[in-house]
C-alpha cells in the first residue's frame, strides 16, 4: 500500500513538472513575449526595440534556464547596464542589489507579479481561490446529496416509472453544458422580459424587476441565497446527471446480487434491504466518479464565473489568458494541475479503502 | 405594417420551413423500419424507443445541416434596419419584394435573423464534430491496440503521455492552443502533421495485415490508400496540396487539431482497457497458435470484438466534441465574429440576456437537443448491444 502511494506520488510529481513546463513553454513562445513587450513598454515598438526590451528584462535566455529561474532552482538573472545599475529577477525596484536573494521562484514562494491585476500573483491567487472555494463548497453541498439520492431512488427498482422519469432527467442534464444551462436559467429566472420574472412582478410577488440577479458579483462580499443560487445550480446540474447515472448503474448491479435476494427471501423488508445491505456497496463506484468530477468542475467554474461575472479562479484564468499575463497564467495552471492530480490520487486510494476486494501490489 | 406573429403561427411557419427535413426523416424511418431485420445493429436501434428518439433528434439536425440552404429564411449575415434584438415573429420593416416577411425567431444584436443563423450553425457544428471524432478514434485505436496488446515500455510511455493530456484542464489547453499568436509559431501545423498521419497509418496497417498473403491485392489496396491518404494529408496538414482539392482554413485547422488532441487520449484509454480484457480470450490464443501476426490479431480479431462499446463511445464522444466546440465559441476562441456556430452565438447573446434572451436561448436549445439526441442514441445502442 505504502509503495503504491509513493509510486503514485512520484508519477504525480513527474506529471506536474512536465505539465508546468509545457505551460511555461507555451506562454513564453516568441509571439507571446513580443505581445508582452508591446503591452508593457510601448505599443508602437520596432522589432529591434522589442528584442532589446526582452534582453533587458531577462527574456532572452534559453527556455529551460528561464523555467529553472521560475521554479527557483536556477539563480535569477542579473544584469548591469552602462551606468552600472544592477537589475535582476530577484531585485525588487528600489532595493539594494547586494541584499537581494540569489534564487526567487515558486519554490521560494515567489510567484511573480501579475501584469493585469498589478499585484503580486500570490495575492491575486489567494483572493480568487477563496472566492472559488465557496462556490465549490456550495456546489458540492448541493450536487453530492442530490445526485446520490436520485441515483439510489432510480436504481432501487430498475425499470419502474420513478426510474424512467429520473433517468430522463439525468440524461437531459448531462446533455446540457454549463453555458447552455446557465443561459436558460438566466432567461427563465433572471430576465426582465422573459421567463417567470415579469409574471411574478405583475402579480406583485417580488419587489425587484427579476426574481434572481443575473450576476453574482455581489457574492464576492456577501454570499446570499439570492445571488448564489443560479451559479451553484448551473454547475451542479451538469454533475448531478452524471453522478446520478453512475450511482444508478452501480445500484442496479448491487440489487441483482445473491445476498440481496437472500435477504429478501429471509423476509427482510425492502426498505431495510436498501438501507442496510445495498447502499454501502452501491456507493463505492460513485465515490471515484465524484472525485474524478473535480477536473470537470474546474471547467464549469471557468464558464460559470465568466457568465455570472464572479471574480474567482476561473474568471482570473480567463483574464490572465486573454491579456497574456504569463505569471498569473502559470500560477493558475499549477493550481489546476495540482487539483486534478491530487483528486486522482485520492480517488485511487479511497477506492482501495472502500473496496477491500482490491489488493494493490 | 403587419402585426407580429403569435407563438402558434411562428411554430407552424418554422415547421413549414423545415419541410425537407420532415420528408427526409420520414423517408429514413420508413425505409429503416421496413428493413430493420436485415440491418444489423443499426436496425436494432428501432427496437428501443430511447434509441429511436435519439436517432430522430440526431437525424433531424443532420438533415437540417444538409438542407440548410433551402431552410434559411434570410442570409445569416444579412442585417435589416430596425430589427435589432427584435422579438420572435416580428415582421420585416419595408421588406424587399420576395424576401421572407418575418424574423421567425427574432433578431440578434446586429439585427440578423436568429432562425437562419441557428440553421447555418448546425452545418458548422456537424462539419467539424464527427470528423474530429473520427480522427480522434483513429489516433486512439492505432495507439491503444499495441499499448494494450504488447504492453511493456511502449504501454507505459504512451499511457504516461495520455494521462498528461487528460490531467490538463481543457479550457487552459484551449487558451494556450487556440490563439492567433500560436499560428505564427507553427505549433498547430506540427500537431496536425502528427495527428493526421494516424488515419493513413491505421488504414495502411489494416489492409496490409489482411491481404499480405496475396501481394497483388495488397499492393493495389495499400497503394490506393497511400495515394489518396498522403494527398489529403499534404493538403490538410500543410496546405500544400498540388491540385488544391484538399485544404483547410488555418483557423479551422487550429480548432480541429485542438479538439482531436483533447479527445484522443480518452479513446486511447478505452481501447487499451478493452484490448487488455479481450487478449486473454481463447480465440486470440487460437489465432496466435495459427501463427497470425500481432497486427492481424489486433486489427482483425480483437478490434471487431470491441466494436459494441466503441460505437457507443463514438456517439457519446461526438456529443462531447459538440460541447467542446461550443465552449471554444463561448470563449470566442478560434472563430470569426461572423461565424453562426452555436457557441459564439450564445457568447454574443449572453451579454444582452436581461433584455433580449432569444438570441442566446435558441442556439442553446439547439445544442442541447443535438447532444441529448446523441446521448439517447448511445443509450439505445448500449441496451441493444447488451442483448447479445
Automatic annotation (TrEMBL), chain A:
Q: Sorted alphabetically, which Gene3D superfamilies does this protein's record hold?
A: MetI-like (1.10.3720.10)
Q: Ribonucleoprotein: is it a keyword of this entry? A: no
How does this protein sit in the membrane?
Multi-pass membrane protein
Which UniProt keywords are given for this protein, alphabetically ordered? Cell membrane, Membrane, Transmembrane, Transmembrane helix, Transport
Annotated localization: Cell membrane
Kindly indicate whether the keyword Phosphoprotein belongs to this entry: no
What PROSITE patterns does its record include? Answer: ABC_TM1
Spell out the CDD domains in the cross-references: TM_PBP2
Q: Which domain of life, per UniProt?
A: Bacteria
Any transmembrane segments, and where? 9-27, 134-153, 165-190, 223-244, 283-308, 328-354
Domain ABC transmembrane type-1: start-end pairs: 129-347
- Which Pfam families is this protein grouped with? BPD_transp_1 (PF00528)
Give the family per the record.
Belongs to the binding-protein-dependent transport system permease family.
Protein name (Swiss-Prot/TrEMBL): ABC transporter permease
Organismal lineage: Bacteria, Pseudomonadati, Pseudomonadota, Alphaproteobacteria, Rhodobacterales
TrEMBL record, chain B:
User: Is the keyword Membrane in the record?
Assistant: yes
| InterPro entries listed in its UniProt record | BP-dependent_transpt_permease, MetI-like, MetI-like_sf
- Please list the residue ranges annotated as the ABC transmembrane type-1 domain: 122-378
Q: What is its main location?
A: membrane
Q: Does the UniProt entry include the keyword Hydrolase? A: no
Location comes to: Cell membrane
Q: Which Pfam families match?
A: BPD_transp_1 (PF00528)
Topology relative to the membrane, per the entry? Multi-pass membrane protein
Question: Which PROSITE patterns does the UniProt record give?
Answer: ABC_TM1
Q: Where are the transmembrane segments?
A: 6-31, 52-72, 128-151, 158-178, 190-208, 220-240, 252-271, 314-335, 355-378
Question: What are the entry keywords?
Answer: Cell membrane, Membrane, Transmembrane, Transmembrane helix, Transport
Family according to the record: Belongs to the binding-protein-dependent transport system permease family.
Instruction: Return the protein name.
Output: ABC transporter permease
Amino acid at each position: 500500500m505504502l509503495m503504491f502511494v509513493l509510486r503514485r506520488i512520484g508519477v504525480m510529481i513527474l506529471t506536474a513538472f512536465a505539465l508546468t513546463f509545457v505551460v511555461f513553454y507555451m506562454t513564453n513562445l516568441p509571439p507571446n513575449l513580443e505581445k508582452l513587450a508591446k503591452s508593457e513598454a510601448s505599443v508602437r515598438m520596432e522589432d529591434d526595440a522589442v528584442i532589446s526590451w526582452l534582453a533587458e528584462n531577462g527574456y532572452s535566455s534559453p527556455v529551460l534556464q528561464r523555467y529553472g529561474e521560475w521554479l527557483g532552482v536556477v539563480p535569477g538573472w542579473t544584469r548591469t547596464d552602462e551606468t552600472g545599475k544592477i537589475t535582476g529577477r530577484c531585485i525588487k525596484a528600489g532595493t539594494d542589489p547586494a541584499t537581494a536573494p540569489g534564487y526567487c521562484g515558486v519554490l521560494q514562494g515567489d510567484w511573480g507579479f501579475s501584469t493585469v491585476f498589478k499585484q503580486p500573483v500570490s495575492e491575486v491567487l489567494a483572493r480568487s481561490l477563496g472566492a472559488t472555494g465557496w462556490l465549490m463548497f456550495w456546489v458540492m453541498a448541493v450536487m453530492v446529496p442530490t445526485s446520490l439520492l436520485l441515483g439510489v431512488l432510480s436504481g432501487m427498482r430498475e425499470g419502474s416509472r420513478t426510474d424512467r422519469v429520473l433517468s430522463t432527467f439525468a440524461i437531459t442534464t448531462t446533455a446540457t453544458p454549463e453555458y447552455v444551462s446557465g443561459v436558460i436559467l438566466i432567461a427563465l429566472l433572471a430576465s426582465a422580459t422573459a421567463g417567470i420574472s415579469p409574471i411574478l412582478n405583475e402579480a406583485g410577488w417580488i419587489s425587484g424587476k427579476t426574481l434572481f440577479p443575473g450576476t453574482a458579483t455581489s457574492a464576492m462580499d456577501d454570499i446570499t441565497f439570492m445571488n448564489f443560487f443560479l451559479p451553484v445550480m448551473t454547475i451542479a446540474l451538469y454533475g448531478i446527471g452524471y453522478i446520478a447515472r453512475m450511482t444508478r448503474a452501480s445500484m442496479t448491479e448491487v440489487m441483482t446480487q445473491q445476498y440481496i435476494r437472500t435477504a429478501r427471501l429471509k423476509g427482510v423488508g425492502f426498505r431495510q434491504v436498501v438501507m442496510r445491505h445495498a447502499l454501502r456497496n452501491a456507493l463505492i463506484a460513485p465515490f471515484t466518479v465524484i472525485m474524478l468530477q473535480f477536473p470537470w468542475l474546474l471547467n464549469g467554474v471557468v464558464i460559470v464565473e465568466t457568465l455570472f461575472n464572479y471574480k474567482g479562479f476561473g474568471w482570473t484564468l480567463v483574464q490572465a489568458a486573454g491579456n497574456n499575463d504569463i505569471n498569473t497564467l502559470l500560477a493558475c495552471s499549477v493550481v489546476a494541475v495540482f487539483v486534478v492530480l491530487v483528486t486522482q490520487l485520492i480517488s485511487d486510494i479511497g477506492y482501495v479503502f472502500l473496496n477491500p476486494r482490491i489488493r494493490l501490489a | 405594417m403587419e402585426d407580429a406573429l403569435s407563438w402558434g403561427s411562428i411554430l407552424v411557419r418554422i415547421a413549414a420551413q423545415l419541410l425537407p427535413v420532415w420528408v427526409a426523416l420520414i423517408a429514413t424511418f420508413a425505409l429503416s423500419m421496413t428493413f430493420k431485420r436485415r440491418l444489423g445493429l443499426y436496425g436494432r436501434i428501432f427496437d428501443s424507443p430511447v434509441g429511436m428518439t435519439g436517432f430522430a433528434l440526431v437525424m433531424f439536425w443532420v438533415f437540417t445541416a444538409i438542407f440548410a440552404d433551402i431552410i434559411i429564411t434570410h442570409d445569416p449575415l444579412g442585417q435589416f434596419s430596425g430589427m435589432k434584438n427584435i422579438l420572435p415573429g416580428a415582421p420585416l420593416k419595408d421588406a424587399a419584394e420576395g424576401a421572407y416577411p418575418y424574423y421567425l425567431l427574432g433578431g440578434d444584436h446586429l439585427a440578423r435573423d436568429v432562425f437562419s443563423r441557428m440553421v447555418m450553425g448546425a452545418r458548422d457544428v456537424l462539419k467539424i464534430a464527427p470528423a474530429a471524432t473520427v480522427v480522434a478514434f483513429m489516433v486512439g485505436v492505432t495507439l491503444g491496440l499495441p499499448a494494450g496488446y504488447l504492453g511493456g515500455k511502449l504501454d507505459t510511455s504512451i499511457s504516461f503521455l495520455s494521462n498528461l493530456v487528460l490531467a490538463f484542464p481543457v479550457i487552459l489547453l484551449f487558451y494556450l492552443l487556440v490563439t492567433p499568436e500560436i499560428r505564427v509559431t507553427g505549433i498547430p501545423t506540427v500537431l496536425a502533421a502528427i495527428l493526421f498521419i494516424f488515419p493513413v497509418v491505421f488504414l495502411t496497417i489494416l489492409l496490409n495485415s489482411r491481404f499480405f498473403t496475396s501481394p497483388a491485392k495488397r499492393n493495389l489496396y495499400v497503394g490506393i490508400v497511400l495515394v489518396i491518404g498522403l494527398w489529403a494529408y499534404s493538403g490538410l496538414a500543410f496546405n500544400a496540396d498540388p491540385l488544391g482539392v484538399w485544404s483547410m482554413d488555418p483557423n479551422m485547422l487550429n480548432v480541429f487539431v485542438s479538439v482531436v488532441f483533447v479527445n484522443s487520449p480518452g479513446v486511447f484509454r478505452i481501447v487499451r482497457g478493452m484490448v487488455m480484457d479481450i487478449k486473454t480470450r481463447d480465440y486470440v490464443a487460437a489465432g496466435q497458435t495459427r501463427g497470425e501476426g500481432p497486427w492481424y490479431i489486433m486489427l482483425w480479431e480483437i478490434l471487431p470484438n470491441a466494436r459494441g462499446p466503441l460505437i457507443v463511445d463514438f456517439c457519446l464522444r461526438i456529443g462531447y466534441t459538440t460541447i467542446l466546440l461550443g465552449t471554444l465559441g463561448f470563449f470566442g476562441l478560434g472563430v470569426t465574429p461572423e461565424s453562426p456556430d452555436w457557441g459564439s452565438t450564445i457568447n454574443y447573446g449572453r451579454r444582452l440576456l436581461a433584455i433580449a434572451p432569444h438570441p442566446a436561448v435558441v442556439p442553446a436549445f439547439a445544442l442541447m437537443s443535438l447532444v441529448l439526441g446523441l446521448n439517447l442514441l448511445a443509450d439505445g445502442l448500449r441496451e441493444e448491444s447488451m442483448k447479445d
